[in-house]
Amino acid sequence: MPDQSVTPHVTPRDARTQVWVETAAPALEGRLATHYALANGYLGLRGTHEEMPDWASPGFYLAGSYGPVRREIIPIHSPDHILTHPERVKPEHHAEYRTLTTLVNLPNPVAVRLTIGEERIDLGAVRILACERLLHMAEARVTRRLVIRDGAGRKTIIDSERFVSWADRTLLCFRYAVTPDDHDAPVAVVPYITSGGHHHPSQRCHVRQNVSAEGFNQMTISLPNGCGVTIAQAYTVRREGRATILDVCISVADERDHPEAAAKAANYADARAAHVAAVTAAMRRVGASIDADGLSTQGFNFGLLHLEMALPYDNPAVSVPIKGLTGEGYRFMVFWDTDFHIFPYYLLTNPAQARNLILYRYGQLDAYRRFAARWGYNGAQVPWETGATGEEETAPWLCLPEREIHISADVAYAVKLYDDLTDDPSLLLDAGAEIVFETARFYASRVTWNAAAGRYEIRDIGCPDQYHTFADNNVFINRMAKFNLAYAAELAGDARLHAVKAKIGLTAAEAAAFAAIAGTLYVIPPNADGIIEECDGFFNLSTDLRGISESFCSHTQAVKQPDALLLFLPFGEEYPAEVQRANWRFYAARTLHGSSLSLPGMALAAAGCGLLDEAVDYFQRSARMDLDDVNLNANLGVHLAGYAVLWETVVFGFGGLRATRDGLHFTPRLPRRWGEVNFAVHWRGCRLAVMLAQGTMTISADAGNARTVPVWVNGEARELAAGMVGEFTV
Hints:
Blueprint: E1 18-21, H1 29-35, E2 38-39, E3 43-45, E4 60-62, E5 66-68, E6 101-103, E7 111-116, E8 119-120, E9 127-136, E10 141-149, E11 155-164, E12 171-180, E13 187-192, E14 206-213, E15 216-222, E16 228-240, E17 243-254, H2 259-265, H3 268-286, E18 289-290, H4 294-310, H5 336-349, H6 351-363, H7 365-374, H8 400-403, H9 407-421, H10 426-446, E19 448-450, E20 455-457, H11 475-491, H12 498-504, H13 508-520, H14 563-566, H15 568-571, H16 577-588, H17 598-608, H18 612-623, H19 640-654, E21 657-660, E22 663-666, E23 676-683, E24 686-693, E25 696-701, E26 709-713, E27 716-720, E28 725-729
Parallel strand pairs: 22-26
Antiparallel strand pairs: 1-9, 2-3, 3-4, 5-6, 7-8, 7-13, 9-10, 10-11, 11-12, 12-17, 14-15, 15-16, 16-17, 18-23, 19-20, 21-22, 23-24, 24-25, 25-28, 26-27
Helix pairs in contact: 4-18, 4-19, 5-6, 5-9, 5-19, 6-9, 6-10, 9-10, 9-11, 10-11, 11-13, 16-17, 17-18, 17-19, 18-19
């Protein structure tokens, strides 16, 4: 790292590739630690200062390392909360805290002790003259320049850089350079591994061994599950001109894997080069970009980076937590967000790894069967929140587990997407079909026959909008259940699945019952004005939305997020564009955007039905969700699913993609305010790069594709062989 005080230079800032901030205000540290968090699906590191001031917001996480939660991090909701039943908030329910878990906040290895002269530098005691942090999104690394004046009046410049390796997912590295500016006092800097105690991690871990030697630190800890994890920190210190430069390579792994050897063997420059190359390759694989206003472009690229940083590689035992590995919001639980909103992104950009997200669900299937039995139902019910075990982890006073029941069908829908869009039949045979059959069994036992109306219904559920917790026949839940039952009945006729059916005792009569229920399961149709009622009686609720809140809104048509519009993503072919537009306008006027999925969901729905100006407006607001802290909770981690929905807005909305088993159908509609969009699609073992500009769409088949890909653009059919480029007027 050059001596920048001697060789000054100006580096232009580029909002397309960088996120920067010029402050060290302690009050902002929670959200800034999220903004500058780095991860690789295995390790997650919040972006706090290396000097570890008392006001820091550190976090260092290892995927899958769940332990019992400390009671005080779970808020106790008021009996008036919209998701709470008045009879459920009782003191005896508090004992159920011990059933909840979170990831351990590990001792942090990106920490230094800096001494200038005789003064140990404490950021809370020195004057911070300048502090700039930059996230270099194209390389997934963070740099910082800190200028301080210490107690002796000396000015010192500190430059640092860090990355969590995408090339070796057990590795993270940082460089720390100290340059005296107006003094010659001696500088000493050494790294250490924090004990974690004074930073109040959400879950403690036991330090089993702590070793320090020249150029090396190592800590072995016992996780709550009994496993031992070793953090090995190898470092060198050198002088370069007036600068003292510390290079640190850290390896984290099971103690039996001896990560100390990997840490000692790593070279900072080589590790950095390998990491940057891996990031470049990953972003080329995704191939997504937009030519829009600077704020939208920056937020979109920030979201793509975090989607890539959240994906665990080659590990079906873990999935993608709702906040990735960037913060402790929702205790790193896995929600429906992963299966319904995030999975399509991974499926179409990295299908080999998307496969593991379904295997994660399959590995917990027995727990899901027990969960269904808990409520007296058959088959498998996927819990609303779950971590490592498949057990329900929703706070015990909330009514989500027994009423927010669409998540089971969301997982079945992911199975169908994978089977349709990849050339890998083994997942369906080995895991997917069993998931579909067992979730169909759940819905078959959950429906109620309405003899007077001659139809099946689903009663006593909570609408996904979450402001109407006690309802009947929610349109999204019923339609997803109908899909699940019909798909199970279809798969039951597949001769390849005989062993699966025999394993779980699925009979022809039961499969026929699935089909019969699906055929008569009530899904609320559009009314004469084309509006789809969210649930029975919704149109009769008050339209007076003045003064409402989460504890005073269930009597109104206010929604947290418009779940009726969710229908148009999987079932858009069933609803004409004019119906979709009518529903968008109806629910836009009633949506309070209390969910981080609401703004991007509105953008996607608007783009899908041709309301492009509205889509662009909601897109920009969504893209700023974390960077502008729109919901005032960025300190808890990024809103990962929202970024997946933004990608879907570009690909399914503006790109007009409908991916099916028979090929790729495009009905493009680019906003007039945008120059172009680019994205890549992986379909049945092939990759295609798509460029949509005003008036043209170009689709390029990779040279390495093994088959011809059928594509349709506004109905015009082409067959794109490997290396071919199709140009279309749109």
